[in-house]
Amino acid sequence: MFNWAKQQLANVAGTAEPIYGPDAIQTITKQAETTPYTEISKDGIKWKTIEWTSVETQTFYFIADGGHIGMAQVIYSNVAGVRITCQFNTKIIYPDGKTPHLWSTTPLENYGFDDEKLSFFADDIAVTLSEDGSEITIKSVVNADSLVDIKITKLAPAFVAGNDGTTTYGIDPEAPNGWMRHAFWPRNKVSGTIVTQAGAVDFTGKGLFIHALQGMKPHHAAAKWNFINFQSPTYSAVMMDFTTPPSYGETNVNVGGIVKDNEIIMAGSPQSVVHTETKEDEEVHWPVPSALKLLWTGKTKDGKDVTVSWEGPLGERLDRIDVMAEVPAVLKSIIGGVAGTRPYIYQWSIRITVKIQIGEEIRDETGTLFYESTFIS
User: Could you tell me if 146 and 102 are in contact, meaning their C-beta atoms sit under 8 angstroms apart?
Assistant: First the structure.
């Protein structure tokens, strides 16, 4: 009962959770031991809009043929079931290495959903799923610095790891403290533009779409993250990796998948990302990676072993984001004032060549890696 009371205080006030230990988390890794992944229909990306503290996002990553990296994101935030806000974020990273990144974040007014909760709208913005579930269009004029008109067309099946893509937190799985869920459109064709004050940026190329739900305070769910998005002419690879805080035993949870053209080669959990070299951020003292080792392993539907790997330096960092300085005030209130919580995101984009082995066949594939390393607490 005492732990329950401390949990309720943590949920409302943002304080640290009790130490439950690793037995108090039901990871997607366990599900994936028997069901590596499940292909999902359009219902698998419905907005959940749960009624207590949570952050739900639809995030679209663009890797343009012309070299630009882009992102568009809708954030639906609920604080303690009493305050809901929505935000739209966009980012453009320019390939010349000289033009400053464009970042815009705008609060949304009069938000809503269609009857099925498959499409989102607010004043001057619509994120619309097509009737057949194969395309999403993003049209936004909410911010004059980034007018968005982009279409994402699904090329390969969508999936979640395990049966439902969900990791639950808490001693009682039937009444969890919270949960984490990710659903992926791993390989997509992107067309359209983001118009800035300097002109239009053409984002024709490849893209990744992720629908994510953190049904609890973000710093209670994870202490650190790794996110990998690799896109090449033939293959796509995605990996989402996080480690829980000590309250849940510093448990690592990792999901990912490999896609070739219009089919999933393998997907599920666990995959692996290792920081092989680090350098301390002298200002905030996080051990920022400078080199990585990436590994995806699994089996095809017909039982062939799959291994996809890369190891090497990350090169020059693209960006360092002080989350508390950039995120909307409502997200700051969700994170709260917990001692040791200082979220920073570090970003890179480099050309890499991955080694792919499917059964006896081995090949190399060159493409663009977009990587984020996030430290929270």
Answer: yes
CB of 281 closer than 8 Å to CB of 342: no
User: Ramachandran region of residue 98, left (φ > 0), alpha (ψ -120 to 50) or beta?
Assistant: alpha
Mean pLDDT of 233-253: 95
**Would the pLDDT of 40 be above 90?**
yes
Secondary structure string (H, E, C) spanning the chain = CHHHHHHHHHHHHCCCCCCCCHHHEECHHHHHCCCCEEEECHHHHCCCCCCCCEEEEEEEEEEECCCCEEEEEEEEEEECCCEEEEEEEEEEECCCCCCCCEEEEEECCCCEECCCCCCEEECCEEEEECCCCCEEEEEECCCCCCEEEEEEEECCCEEEECCCCEEEECCCCCCCCEEEEEEEEEEEEEEEEEEECCEEEECCEEEEEEEEEECCCHHHHCCEEEEEEEECCCEEEEEEEEECCHHHCCCEEEEEEEEECCEEEEEECCCEEEEEEEEECCCCCCEEEEEEEEEEEEECCCCCEEEEEEEEECCCCCEEEEHHHHCCHHHHHHHCCCCCCCCEEEEEEEEEEEEEEECCEEEEEEEEEEEEEEECC
CA separation for the pair 74, 77 (Å, rounded): 10
The answer to whether 87 touches 120, Cβ cutoff 8 Å, is no
- Round to whole Å and give the CA distance between 244 and 169: 10
Q: Could you tell me how far CA 345 lies from the centroid of its own chain? A: 12
pLDDT at 329: 53
**Structure tokens of 81?**
């079931």
Look up the pTM and report it.
Answer: 0.92
Integer Cα distance of 289 and 281 in angstroms: 10
Q: What is the pLDDT of residues 162-217, one digit of tens each?
A: 999 999 999 888 888 899 999 999 999 999 999 999 999 999 999 999 999 998 88
C-alpha span between 49 and 82 (Å, rounded): 13
Query: Percentage of the chain surpassing pLDDT 90?
Result: 79
5 burial via Cβ count (<10 Å: 0-12, 13-18, 19+) = exposed
Q: Where are the domains of the chain?
A: 19-375
pLDDT of residue 219: 81
The CATH code of domain 19-375 reads 2.40.370.10
